[in-house]
Amino acid sequence: MGIVVLTMKASVIEMFLVLLVTGIHSNKDTTKKIKRPKFNVPQINCDVKAGKIINPEFVVKCPAGCQDPKYHVYGTDIYASYSSVCGAAIHSGVLDNSGGKILVRKVAGQSGYKGSYSNGIQSLSLPRWRESFIVSEGKPQKDVTYPSALTYSSSKSPTAKTGEATKAYQKPSVPGTTAQPVTLMQVTGATASEASHTSLPKPSPSAVSTTSSLRSQPMGHRSWELDLWSTSSDASGQNSPRANAGEMDLWKPGSVLLDAGFVPKEELSTQSLEPVSQGDPNCKIDLSFLIDGSSGIGKRRFRIQKQFLADVAQTLDIGPAGPLMGVVQYGDNPAAQFNLRTHMNSRDLKTAIEKITQRGGLSNAGRAISYVTKNFFSKANGNRGGAPNVAVVIVDGWPTDKVEEASRFARESGINIFFITIEGATENEKQYVTEPNFSNKAVCRTNGFYSLNVQSWFSLHKTVQPLVKRVCDTDRLACSKTCLNSADIGFVIDGSSSVGTGNFRTVLQFVANLSKEFEISDTDTRIGAVQYTYEQRLEFGFDDYNTKSDILNAIKRVGYWSGGTSTGAAINYALEQLFKKSKPNKRKLMILITDGRSYDDVRIPAMVAHHKGVITYAIGVAWAAQDELEVIATHPANDHSFFVDEFDHLYKFVPKVIQSICTEFNSQPRN
């Protein structure tokens, strides 16, 4: 009997072993058949900011072409979440402009971010931000699952659809606390005004008690719904935030999320919620306000004047990429309150304006205009060169000194003067005005664009919008165009045999010395050159070089030709090959340099040049015929023709030619 039992036990054990082995092989086969799902890397655009993506860690693919200054980056190595993700990747060196995959990991906000230039991108500085991120190569780490679809916090998300809630996101828990799932649902299509009239479900008592002490102040332009749930949910999901969307509470962008939850309300006042504006690029001007601080204005009206300045500063959107603003106060004497580079945003500027105290004294506006012309618009004070210079003079009644001469000098220096006259002189008071019609004598042009007359100080606030619109209309800021930055200048150079190699180099040096006096760029003064003998040759055109150094190098490279002297044919050639390509808004100046009488007629070509609006300056050296120079030159010939006895004395005539050009320019009508 015992033997039988043992045999049965052995059979059972044998069967068990067979089943076990079979199961192992079966599991191996099953394992072989199960494949890990392929990870799809989500793609984003160059302008996507890290703060718009809720996921704490993710892999994304950036497109090509993100190395562009319009995609702002804040910080170095550790970037503020307000930065472009792809821009930060290029700045850090992880990517180049061809794009590719990157790994992004969110980290805590920093107390400051330092800007730097790296890999073709200039990152900006930022004093503080609520969240940061770092970028590394897009190699997924082992045993880490990355999202194949990103969760966005904005309707601008490429993956967000109308009426759909975004994916729930579990904030990392802090030791000793309970993790709180957060579900965001967008009120789609609602603007700020629409959202305020949206009928929202009433929160449950538990939701109210949970959120009332944590909710941040509403900010931004889009409304969102939020529910914070700190109780544990059961399997049925009865307490789940998704189970009852009607228990969601109102939340708007601007709330600051950190690892421990929301920033307390009292901390929001010290936290930087938006990066400082770079300014309105459509209004890039350098602006000086000349404010009346005389005793006669009184304290109350002086405060109104300061409020007006603050309103203008707010409306302008001050910043390094837009308008910059400084203030000069005048009484007996002018004094700068702050210059263009002192305050780089509207907020700081308004604070500084509030601190200005009244100086008292007379109302010497003319002296203030002279001060601004000589001292204010300098590079040391923040003048940017490429931005139009604008001076707005505020006068209570009328000035106690004369403004005409000071204003003329300001206009010739390229300053656009605006006058705001408040409570101007009545008929009975005009006898006391030092300089009748002072406003028209001061402003850039007398067409009404630069003058604003305000009947009462209490109406001054109505002038904010009209003034801002005018000073930002850079196409109409006529006084920005000066004698040195608004011309197409064509040099027509005699290369005949009588000149000789040595003297020809002296002529080229004269051409270079004249060119140095002008502000040269593709939008300012442009330079071209033609050399002639019997024939003509275009050395370089107006579009060939747009910097002063390039122009001077091009002049040095001009080679001496040698031959006869056909000045008439050279004028015709310059009109066709050079000035025909001049810009419509440019003054056309021809500066012809010759050392002898022409073999052909110059009268008809000179008349054609005058008819086409080309202002011609004729400069004769040594054997040049003075009567011929006068025929070539624009009327009056005495102002447009010069005779030099020797080539070596040419340099003495550089200031005379420049003065003649500027005198002719400034004599134009101001209407």
Automatic annotation (TrEMBL):
Which Pfam family name is an example for this entry? LCCL
Q: Where is the VWFA domain?
A: 286-471, 488-657
Location, primary (coarse class): secreted
Region annotated Disordered, chain positions = 145-221
Every LCCL domain range? 40-133
> What GO terms describe the biological role, i.e. biological process, of this protein?
extracellular matrix organization; nervous system development; positive regulation of cell-substrate adhesion
Function text = Promotes matrix assembly and cell adhesiveness. Plays a role in spinal cord formation by regulating the proliferation and differentiation of neural stem cells.
User: What is said about its interaction partners and assembly?
Assistant: Binds dermatan sulfate and chondroitin sulfate.
* PANTHER family assigned: COLLAGEN ALPHA, VITRIN
Q: What is this protein called?
A: Vitrin
